[in-house]
């Protein structure tokens, strides 16, 4: 029991696995009871239930440092200012990472499939899950759970190790090669946001924006949901990339000016 109390990071991964297993069982039951349902009609409610279960399990075994007071501190004072800065830093990173993946790694296997993902996003439960509840649950489990525990018990290894480990696990749990590289980089960014602001506000906001933006692209560009196509073609995408690089430079300078030390 003392090991469990002192080292809880693996429990949050187990919670996520239990939630996903629940989604799998529910989807099989739904398919047997209603074989006429589409993929989106089956997966949207089951993923919603799974993410809700994951959030509930987190609060059943949350770190003592995760409270409403510490979370809301991300909206006030120095942490509030840092939350805004890291969110502004995240916007160009998200665009550049997705553009980079489309340009340099376009052939990565997509085990989910564009059509399956769109069928989920076009379902109200699916859209709510992918855009809001999913990001919230994942931030609770991987930043609030895994990273917090590693930071608490392995702080002698430096601040980057807990961030990198939680980002690595975060990329693996997507179980889709087409998502893993971007998920790892996003995980590093989310981990830094959580560590730097000492609050989940910024990481949740960034994660919700990332997923909501992906949903927006899929909904507005149903025939071709690539970011390059959404931006208007290669020329427009190139201009966007240059603007993002300049934006990233300014945002990073602002973060440096604020100070990279934890508040």
Question: Could you explain how this protein is built, in words?
Answer:
This protein is an all-alpha fold and 263 residues long. It has one domain. It contains twelve helices and no strands. The chain has helices at 2-6, 9-33, 39-60, 68-72, 77-104, 114-121, 124-153, 160-172, 180-197, 201-220, 227-231, 234-258. The two termini are 33 Å apart.
Structure summary:
The protein is an all-alpha fold and 263 residues long. The chain has helices spanning 2-6, 9-33, 39-60, 68-72, 77-104, 114-121, 124-153, 160-172, 180-197, 201-220, 227-231, 234-258.
The secondary-structure class comes to mainly alpha
How would you sum up the major sheet? none
Instruction: Round the mean pLDDT to the nearest integer and report it.
Output: 92
What's the number of structural domains? 1
Q: How many β-strands, per DSSP?
A: 0
N-to-C order of helices and strands: HHHHHHHHHHHH
Work out the helix count. 12
Radius of gyration: 19 Å
Q: How much helix, percentage-wise, in residues?
A: over 70%
Silhouette:
globular
End-to-end Cα distance: 33 Å
Low-confidence stretches: none
Strand content: under 5%
Main features:
263 residues; globular; mainly alpha; 78% helix
List the helices and strands and how they pair.
Blueprint: H1 2-6, H2 9-33, H3 39-60, H4 68-72, H5 77-104, H6 114-121, H7 124-153, H8 160-172, H9 180-197, H10 201-220, H11 227-231, H12 234-258
